[in-house]
Amino acid sequence: MAFDIDMIKAVYSQIGEKIDAARKVVNKPLTLSEKILYSHLHADQNLESFERAKSYVNFAPDRVAMQDATAQMALLQFMQAGKKQAAVPSTVHCDHLILAKEGAKEDLKSSLTASGEVFNFLESVSNKYGIGFWKPGAGIIHQVVLENYAFPGGMMIGTDSHTVNAGGLGMVAIGVGGADAVDVMAGMPWELKMPKMIGVKLTGKLNGWTAPKDVILKVAGILTVKGGTGAIVEYFGEGAKSMSCTGKGTICNMGAEIGATTSTFGYDESMERYLKATGRADVAEAANAVKEHLTGDDEVYANPEKYFDEVIEIDLSTLEPHINGPFTPDRATPVSKMREEAEKNGWPTKVEWGLIGSCTNSSYEDLTRAVSIAKQAIDKKITAKSDFGINPGSEQIRFTVDRDGILQVFEDLGARIFTNACGPCIGQWDRAGADKKEKNTIIHSFNRNFSKRADGNPNTHAFVTSPELVAALAISGDLGFNPLTDTLTNADGEQVKLDPPSGFELPEKGFDVEDNGYQAPAEDGSNVEVKVAPDSKRLQLLTPFEPWDGKNITGMKLLIKAKGKCTTDHISMAGPWLRYRGHLDNIADNTLTGAVNYFNDATDSVKNQLTGEYGAVPATQRAYKDAGIPTIVVGDHNYGEGSSREHAAMQPRHLGVKVILVKSFARIHETNLKKQGMLGLTFANEADYDKIQEDDTFDFLDLDQFAPDKPLTLSVKHADGSEDTIKVNHTYNDQQIAWYKAGSALNLIKEKEKAN
């Protein structure tokens, strides 16, 4: 039987009535996304026709999921909320803190030693507050959620941007920061601006070398990394129904790479098959009883231009395999054009590593399609020219593919089987030679390929593609190899061609596992003690942020003017820094160290206006904080793109930064700034970005009149005595201004809990 089946049945028992009521108020047919949103309004939210991209709406998600790197800060905050138990079903998944190096057995053992303090903390907090705990090695959060918790028509949030993976099972699943998770676990309303709707109509059927991954790689090329910001992407059409559930999950997963709030598909037979195969026939039966409510209305899909803000149409029958990158997941290149692009841009064409797995592509179907290519190489006497690494998505997947002989084929080809964990995808990869910073190329089936992300080497050109194409290109050792047309030379000197991949949507013998790694919490956790050592380097109890004094902030110095792309990886790097995700002061020492300084094109080198000398960003900011001087960070477009990590907001806040002023924000990061009591502002005139100089001082002229829909004014004083007055915009509503005044959203929760 499924986890939380009573909760799921309760959702379904009311879904029809709620959708009917919403349809009458909206007075038009509804998309699937709208059905889920309107049926999950919080009890204190009045039903009305909400305006897309403008109305802030309070929702009541069904569940919360957290991964170990972000769960630390989320649960440290929850411990301050004064609650005895999580108000909704919640889980913690230990998947980010496992370093890939030697192989699964050795790496898991090493990680249990290195991060045992953190795992023990997460286990004890979960036990105390009624939270399900998935042990290290159990699997990657999003694959485990898809296998165990996701359900059609449900709504969940998760402290990871790729929470959206659950859209493959028809959910509205949204990545958030830890403070948002605290709201939901504390039983509070969860606020979201009503998203725009992007419809993607899929026609035809995938064939040959083309995989579900190619759909989202194509969409990323169309919409770019910010084209989905503030929108839900809803896939529909006969092409959507023809794909597997896990294939749909892959597409939804990488919706995070276009900035989308989430992505989803309507309930269909592939989802029913997947639910039954993963031991949830009871969920499938319940979903079948209300299936007309678990997809968009017929009129919506018949005339999508009338109901979506933007419509994209893709013919799967003619879609070509794609390879995206390097350094950004939206640079899309058809496989037939890759050699030409690589030569034109000077990308290394020798493939050093092929990596298969991550939360994006680690399903049974993914691994069987990739292994069909590996088996051909062995049978046709082709020696792999690149190193191989495999990360199974969960222990259930690993156990099943091992039983079916799939892992053995990969190992026969020389592959290294890593732990069921994120590993290289999140920078947890001790790659031999990476410290030399040599220019090289790797190819992987992950979702992100930002500079330094996989191995810490800024010169590693990482390319994203499907698992089957990863296998083919790694075997060939050539980025420009096109398996649709090209041949390889085998051990006998013969020219041989790889046949198109084949695989299994689901295991013929069913899934199997001996220990899935799940640990249920205590029924009564009141006597569970959570300990954090005062001298711990890994964990630190939180001190509440100070409230705003209601006055204009003046005398702010410029900390950094970031040039170009500034993702959450640039603001708070992952990789080795993951070890400090539960210790705010220690991890603050990586703040903005990856951001490029506009004035010298260097990273981690900014001018200290107190001394005139250049130094590391965190050290410079600490000097300003010690001197009692407020600071401001200036950035470019889509600032905070990427991961949901709220550390990218909490670290500057902790160090004394008062304002982040940019051309535009990524959705999750803007919300995280608001939750932590920071001012996230945008230039009213983007050209004013160019006016900001290295020695500037900033004064607010009207922050003391902070109010919704009212721009603010900054006086920018330059070193030569000249001055510019610029207008800046914000999107704060009354509730968010209350967070700012209180010092953080968490401070307000604590105040309300004390009042009760």
TrEMBL record:
| Gene3D superfamilies reported in the protein's UniProt record | Aconitase, Domain 2, Aconitase, domain 3, Aconitase, domain 4
**Keyword DNA repair found:** no
Q: Which GO terms describe its molecular function?
A: 4 iron, 4 sulfur cluster binding; aconitate hydratase activity; metal ion binding
Identify the pathway: Carbohydrate metabolism; tricarboxylic acid cycle; isocitrate from oxaloacetate: step 2/2
Q: Give GO BP annotations, semicolon-separated.
A: tricarboxylic acid cycle
Q: Which reaction does it catalyse?
A: citrate = D-threo-isocitrate
The family annotation for this protein states: Belongs to the aconitase/IPM isomerase family.
Protein name as it appears in the record? Aconitate hydratase A
Q: Which organism is it from?
A: Fulvivirga sediminis
Could you read off the lineage of the organism from its UniProt record? Answer: Bacteria, Pseudomonadati, Bacteroidota, Cytophagia, Cytophagales
